[in-house]
Amino acid sequence: MHALEVKNLTKTFDGLTAVDNVSFNVPEGSIFGLIGRNGAGKTTTIRMMMNIYLPDSGEVILRGTKIGQEFKNKVGYLPEERGLYKKMKVLETLLYFAELKGKKGKEIQKKAEEYLERFELGDRKQSKIEDLSKGNQQKVQFITTILHDPEFVILDEPFSGLDPINTNLLQEIVLEKKQEGKVIILSTHLMDFAERMCDHIAMIDHGKIILDGELNEIKARYGQRNVSLTYEGNISFLNNNPMIEKIENFGNTTGIRVKSADQTQELLKLIVEHGVRVKKFDANDISLYQIFLELAGSEHNGKMGRQHV
Amino acid sequence: MFSSRTIAVMKRELREKLLSKTFIIMTLLIPVFMFGILGIQTFVMSYEGDQNTNLTVIAESARITKKLQDEFSKRKFVQNGYYKITYATMDRDEFSGYLQSHRKDLLNETLTGIVYVPKNALTNKEVEYYSKNPNNNVVFKKIESIIDHALVDIYFQNKFLSNDDIKFLSKHVDFNSYRISLEKAIEKEGYGNLVVSFLLTFLLYFSLIFLGTMMMRSVVAEKTNRIVEVLLSSVNSKELMTGKIIGTGITGLVQMAIWMLPVVVVISTNWFALPKDFTLSIQLGYVFYFLLNFFIGLITFLGLFAMVGAIFDNEQDAQSGLWPVMLLVMIPFFIAISLPTNPASPIGKIASFIPFASLLVMPARMSIVEVPAMEVVLAFLINLATMILSFSLAGKIYRVGILRTGKKPKWAEIVQWIRYKY
Is B4 an interface residue toward A (CB < 8 Å)? Predict the structure, then answer.
């Protein structure tokens, strides 16, 4: 069962097609990643899903019916461009945004106070937003996103500008919401975050979906010839080996692609024989980033047809 | 357009504006400021600084001296001691000596001035005034007519004219203005309505600009603070704009109603002893009309100011892009304040039916001349239609504008926004 079906969305601004016939499905109870470079069309797609923009064509279906105000009430949205009223007080802010979602009264206030306690802001509820540190303002912003207990949480580039503590906090919330059976849609250009958190992804480039499906399946399909290696020593001897197609250094790990899937065992043997200390050797593993590079290429080349897994 | 969300937005605007210090201070200060200006003006006009005037009035003939003494002593400013006047009779030579000996007194101002009325003043009405400040209008204004009156009296005394003839001769023309209107009897007209007309026009203009600018700033701030996208994930742009405008509109209405309270009190009670000339012939109904018209005007212009705020993403650009809206307020304002000089001018009449202009000109016109009920209704309908049309137009541009940042848009692009499907 799909919670949301995005069907053939297209949006043009001043003759420029920002989103071009985009379709994908968001399954129930999943963390769904919308992945692509900056300017690929992620935010525009999300704005159309939120009914902030009307699409030129196409539609978004929520459990069988077209989205409208009802969907807005069920969504907690953390836009990439975040902001709060600087002169408003913390608790007042939380209650205002909850009221806009149709939730008010004692219960929501109690819940707001609980969240503030949990985020160590319990003593700041009467402070003005402008008197809070940037990190604390972000915490307040998260709370406004989830206070009304939304069925859908949409996070647009949620990790941009976050310090590590708030990043962990946000991840914690996302996983907690998933356990509660909510649908989380996460748009990001940070592939490793998406890889760690998402069950399903849709990859968007130049306004078009270039890949979508379940993350494990995608990785399995692209990963058969790929090895992710963590090691100590020198592996430069591999550079001219005929069975190697490509070696890429990703910092801590190195991605190696062999020319055919049955060569991975031979590769391991070769590395061990050369006295390299292997810490991790993961055949059948490929990073999302590698897949992305393979499909989208660098900025100017490689617009490929759609891949569905 | 109206939903629980609109009401939530409206309530927030009210909380932020109605309960803000700026609002409370402004609301109280404006009337204090206005009445203060009126008060200072009245005070300056009435205080002429001539309380300790010492005059010596000298005539060449005893008959003139006697007559002047009679006339002066009838006057209040002499009776209450503001003017101390000594009288004497001297011929030209004696007077020259007297002038020499009192030079010192004149220079150190223990003596304000010496008036010398020679005999031939009875033929040419020429009188001499000696003083350190010989062009003192305050003194002249007070003594001129008295001396004139005395001379005329003496001149005609032996010419077989009756006292009534003399009284007529020495009286100036005095204008009394009467207001002609359909419903009421002919009433003596004071300058009260002119003052009220000017005051109300000013309040209307000031309030529209002040609240409008506030609205524009708040829209720009929501754009620059990036709140708008968070808001739009809950409400649609029309609900947001409507809530903001109604909230600010109510704030403005409350403020204006507070400002109108003194007017209501003055016209419905007799607690205040207004100067006799300051008759006010406006009625409570007019005050209600004024407030209603103001509210419609406020909604109309707040929509336009919000639209301008939505087009630009910083205050400087927004201020400089404001001129078309400012013209819509300022031109009618100038027409309205020039109305008292010629209330029946066709420009005023036409302007009171032109969209936008009507909002400022019609109330001003109504406070000065009698406007037929039909015309008032027509203007009201025009204003209502203007409000609805401009609000929906502003809404369309607002909807597109609030999510735009970066490059300053060109006017041609903005016009295209109206047709955008968003």
Answer: yes
